Amino acid sequence: MEPELKTILECSSDLFSKGRKQHIQPLLIPMELQNPTDPSELIRIQPNYHLYNFKMQPRFEGRIGITDSEISKKKSVHKSIWYQQKNGMKQKLAMKIKLKICRTKIKSKEELTTKKIGHKERSIAKKIGHKERSIAKKIGHKERSIAKKIGHKERSIAKKIVSYDTIRCDTVRYDTVRYDTIRYDIISSSAKEIIMDWYYEKIHNKKNYIK
After folding, report:
1. pTM here?
2. Which residues contact 4 (CB under 8 A, 6 or more apart)?
3. Which of 19, 65, 179, 198 has the fewest other C-beta atoms within 10 Å?
4. Number of structural domains the chain divides into
């Protein structure tokens, strides 16, 4: 999004898929949420197929899903966020999400060790149970990528490891692919605080978050 867009109420037609252009009534969004954000400010969302529901305001709830197939086929994925009012009417904001994808080499010793384990490490991670949180914590910053490589089930483990501050980190490693953070072009830092508050609360609820 270009900085020329003054508010997120200005919904340009290019955000709609072909044949779905329509007029949208303005949404009542606080002024602090209407300022374009600094491109250097990033929010991380795990690039697996889930619907991420987060609240910017009690009246609106948005969700986004990105599939692994979309990520593997493209170098970048553009998504727009749907908001749904209480009356069931769906409206789309002038907002784009771009997911940049780049390849990266495995650098740390712990990551190489995890790679050599192969498929068996999934059962190992399961057997560790709750204790693995403290083990991962002791490893340091690198444990985030290690947890990601354990397998599908580690998502809940990895999510429980991260703290409020680590949600702000700019990269997520999954296998040998580094997924750069999804950039919100028109969400101010105050809106990010709301999203991260929800995100921090949601990651501790495995039943509702992980499919």
Report:
1. 0.13
2. none
3. 19
4. 2
User: Tokens standing for 124?
Assistant: 């190992």
Structural tokens at position 73: 């086929």
Residues 89 and 185 in one domain: yes
Let me know whether 166 and 115 are in one domain. Answer: yes
Average confidence score pLDDT of the chain: 39
64: which 2 tokens? 């986004």
Q: Are residues 25 and 125 in the same domain?
A: no
Mean pLDDT, range 181-190, rounded to an integer = 35
The pLDDT of residue 4 is 36
Give the mean model confidence (pLDDT) for residues 145-159. Answer: 44
Specify whether 191 is located in the same domain as 122.
Answer: no
pLDDT, tens digit, for every residue of 72-119? 444 444 444 444 444 444 444 333 333 333 333 334 334 334 444 444
Q: 89 and 140 in one domain?
A: no
Do 138 and 157 sit in the same domain of this protein? Answer: yes
**Domain interval for residue 85:** 13-103+176-209
5 part of a folded domain? no
Residue 191 confidence (pLDDT): 43
